UniProtKB/TrEMBL annotation:
Residues 551-805 form the EAL domain. Keywords: Coiled coil, Membrane, Transmembrane, Transmembrane helix. PANTHER family: BIOFILM ARCHITECTURE MAINTENANCE PROTEIN MBAA (PTHR44757:SF2), DIGUANYLATE CYCLASE DGCP (PTHR44757). This is EAL domain-containing protein. Its cofactor is Mg(2+). It comes from Shewanella insulae. The keyword Nucleotide-binding does not apply.
Length: 825
């Protein structure tokens, strides 16, 4: 088979050549860049050294000029003293007779002798201005050698030398041109100099950076450069002295040095040509480029010599790969070279590997054909039971839904979950559990119609797809056969078991329903069946989906409700029978949702009672009840307690004791002011844990009440051991205490039982005066119900407490109020 080269095919030899060239170019470029950068750094260091050298030279030249003036002062003093006994007169004679010689010898432009008050005693040369005299008067206070540079018509250096004349302090005023200083400063012929005066005031701008030019070397070439610098760069940039400037194909280093230490002093600008250095850099760059090109050409030649034969061999080998793809193993063998080259390389190894690959592929092809059919069969089957698996379920379910032709023809999905399978698995072991699943799978398969399919989704969950269902009786018959088949005992080793299952059914008569939705519907129905007890089935309804969505909303919103304090406590009074004296309150929770309004506990507590959210709600109620106890204590009601209803999960939570202790300590209340109520059923289910929890709470001082007594199946032996304080009679007995002897006898028995155990009794649900009197006659200590009051908000409770502060008697409303279902936390 011929090889079809793509349009953008590029031979590997050219790829190698390009790769080598790119690598060498990259490496050479990096080396060149580093070397060039090193040269630039060296240039910068040399320029900095040159600048420092110039600064030192300028400082030395200025200091030399000052010392020159000091020497002149000493020698002039000797000459003046020789002229006359009066030194002042001697200076006048000296200047009058020998000023030209003095001026020429000491290179002076002007000289003066002044008293400290500014009176001139002798003078020659240029007259001194008012500014000069003002500087002289300011300088005499230090009485030290002082100098400055002044630029008016030209730039001069002025030096004040303190001296004694006739035994009194005087000042010599020397003024010299700056030419000598500049001549010493110019140490290199490649350096051009320009002297600029001080920055002039606004309104009189100077030609260069607001300064006048007083002197410049090589004016024809230097002035145009200086003008360009002044137009292009600020004085601050020039003062930094770290730049290299280009002008008319030349490179310059430009620096400025102040000629005095005052802020706005004349300055000397140095212009240094860098053309020689730039020529050296350019020569270096050309040399590096030439070296790099030579290296690239040499490397390319070497690559071509070494790689050419191997690349050609690889190109031939590429024609063999399509033969492997076409399973032409004989053609591959015939195209490969029979012998290796004189010096084998990797290409020869590839030829050997290709031959071995062709042999192995031919052998594997036969094995693959054998296993393909088996893999296709196993891909859609459960390995344990042999039933179709979850992947097959989705495929078959989608197909069945798409084939629904009319409303009379529907598809039914049954979701089965074995009851108590986990307990069986944990007790007998996984091996016996797997054996049970195989038996159940076989019985389910025998219980369905020929057109139906049983699937195993995983674990102990099975799904059954019923196709072409015409009426509900067909479904009922299948369910009956399943329950009947599972009623036969299953023998596992020495154990004989009867397995039951909970079934959820979901009907589908529309081809628009998705398979995932139908599975979800059947799953919801199965959970409803499981909650109804063992061996049950339920049919999916929209109400189930609404309840599931509502449960999800509550689980997601309850945390926000706690954080934003949407949960509010209402209080129902607990009074003493028959006196009517107030003894405490039961805390009943209400949820004021910002969008749904008031939500009663029965609408959200059942949805969270098996999750951690019910513990968060319970802790919230304990905290709020503790706050109310503290408020009651502050209001003068320390004897009152607040009862809090706890779920079984919360009561047996490991952290409950710490939560109660923290709230009691945080609000500085008595632990006996809290009464925790737990239902009879939740205590009996895990009696040992309940006893331990009660004991720890009692040790803290908290009181315990058994709520809804009589509605469960209590063990009197356990009840005797539980360390509770109060027994609460459920409202179902209280409501009928006057109507039948049975309920009245039960209540009397419960009260007597509690008293024999040393406990007190609270009757719930009292709605009439007659009920209250009857219970009082039977020695029931406390009562609560709508006869006394409906649950009130906290503000209403404290309003009533203010009214009964003296009597401590809760006001009783004789007219029975409408009965509402009592809902706690």
């Amino acid at each position: 088979m011929a090889v079809n080269h793509p349009n953008r095919f590029l031979s590997i030899k050219w790829k190698l050549l390009i790769a080598v060239i790119l690598i060498l170019t990259l490496v050479g470029g990096m080396i060149s860049t580093l070397a060039y950068q090193q040269l630039l750094n060296q240039q910068k260091m040399l320029l900095e050294a040159q600048r420092d050298k110039l600064a030192q030279s300028l400082s030395f030249s200025l200091n030399t000029a000052v010392e020159h003036s000091l020497q002149a002062a000493m020698q002039l003093g000797f000459v003046a003293n020789a002229k006359s006994d009066d030194s002042a007169e001697g200076y006048q004679l000296l200047l009058a007779e020998n000023w030209p010689d003095v001026q020429l010898y000491w290179d002076l432009k002007g000289f003066g002798l002044y008293q400290l008050d500014g009176e001139r005693l002798a003078h020659a040369g240029e007259p001194h201005s008012e500014d000069d005299l003002q500087w002289l008067l300011q300088s005499e206070a230090s009485f030290e050698l002082t100098s400055r540079v002044v630029c008016i018509e030209d730039c001069v250096i002025q030096v004040l030398v303190p001296t004694l004349v006739n035994g009194k302090p005087h000042l010599f005023f020397f003024e010299s041109v700056l030419t000598e200083v500049i001549s010493h400063f110019r140490i290199d012929k490649s350096i051009e100099l320009a002297v600029l005066g001080a920055r002039v005031s606004e309104g009189q701008p100077g030609p260069l950076w607001g300064r006048h030019l007083y002197s410049i070397s090589n004016r024809p070439s230097s002035f145009s450069l200086l003008r360009h610098m002044a137009d292009s760069f600020s004085w601050q940039q020039l003062s930094l002295g770290d730049g290299i400037y280009s002008y008319q194909d030349g490179h310059w280093a430009v620096w400025s040095f102040p000629l005095d230490k005052v802020e706005n002093a004349p300055a000397i600008v140095v212009l240094m040509s860098l053309d020689q250095w730039q020529r050296m850099l350019s020569s270096f760059q050309l040399g590096m480029v030439g070296t790099l090109l030579a290296g690239l050409i040499l490397a390319a030649g070497l690559v071509m010599m070494v790689a050419w034969s191997s690349v050609v061999s690889l190109a031939r080998h590429a024609n063999l790969l399509p033969l492997l793809a076409d399973h032409d193993f004989a053609g591959v063998r015939s195209s490969l070279p029979k012998k290796l080259s004189l010096f084998p390389d990797e290409v020869d190894l590839i030829h050997l590997a290709t031959r071995e690959l062709a042999d192995n592929m031919q052998g594997l092809e036969n094995e693959v054909d054998e296993y393909t059919h088996e893999l296709e069969r196993l891909a859609m089957l459960d390995t344990l039971t042999g039933l179709p698996n979850k992947a097959m379920l989705h495929h078959e379910l989608q197909t069945a839904i798409a084939c629904i032709a009319s409303e009379d023809d529907c598809v039914v999905l049954m979701f089965l979950d074995l009851d108590e399978f986990k307990r069986i698995n944990d007790t007998l072991g996984h091996i016996q559990g797997d054996e049970l699943l195989k038996i159940v799978a076989a019985r389910l398969t025998n219980s369905v119609r020929e057109m139906d399919t049983v699937f195993r989704q995983g674990g102990d969950e099975f799904l059954i797809l019923l196709r072409q269902v015409r009426d509900e009786q067909e479904v009922s018959n299948v369910i009956h056969r399943i329950f009947s088949a599972l009623q036969h005992p299953v023998v596992l080793g020495s154990h004989k078991l009867i397995v039951t299952t909970s079934i959820g059914l979901a009907y589908c008569n529309s081809s628009e329903l998705r398979a995932e939705e139908l599975i979800q519907h059947a799953d919801l129905a199965m959970y409803q069946a499981k909650s109804a007890g063992r061996s049950n089935y339920r049919v999916f309804s929209e109400e189930m989906l609404h309840q599931a969505n509502n449960r999800l909303m509550i689980e997601q919103s309850i945390g926000t409700a706690i954080n934003e304090e949407q949960l509010v406590l209402f209080l129902q009074p607990i009074v003493e029978l028959p006196s009517g004296r107030l003894r405490g309150f039961e805390a009943l929770i209400r949820w004021f949702h910002p969008e749904r309004g008031l939500i009663m506990p029965a609408e959200f507590i059942p949805d969270i009672e098996h999750s951690e959210a019910v513990i968060e709600v319970g802790n919230y109620v304990i905290r709020k009840a503790s706050e109310l106890v503290a408020q009651l204590d502050s209001a003068g009601w320390p004897e009152l307690y607040i009862a809090v209803n706890l779920s079984a999960k919360h009561f047996l939570a490991a952290d409950l004791l710490n939560v109660v202790r923290q709230e009691v300590e945080a609000h500085h209340i008595s632990a006996q002011s809290l009464l925790l109520e737990v239902t009879e059923a939740s205590v009996i289910e895990q009696v040992e844990q309940a006893m331990a929890a009660m004991a720890s709470l009692k040790a803290l001082g908290v009181r315990i009440a058994i709520d809804d007594f009589g509605t469960g199946y209590s063990s009197l032996s356990y009840l005797k051991q539980l360390p509770f304080d109060l027994l609460k009679i459920d409202r179902c007995f209280t409501a009928n205490v006057l109507d039948g002897e049975a309920d009245a006898h039960i209540i009397a028995t419960v009260i007597e039982l509690a008293h024999n155990l040393g406990r007190q009794v609270v009757a719930e649900g009292i709605e009439t005066q007659q009920q209250a009197q009857c219970l009082s006659c039977q020695d029931c200590e406390f009562g609560q119900g709508y006869y006394f009051s409906r649950p009130l908000d906290v503000a209403s409770v404290f309003k009533v407490l203010q009214e009964i502060e003296e009597t401590r008697m809760w006001p009783i409303h004789q007219a029975p109020q409408p009965r509402l279902v009592r809902l706690g936390s």
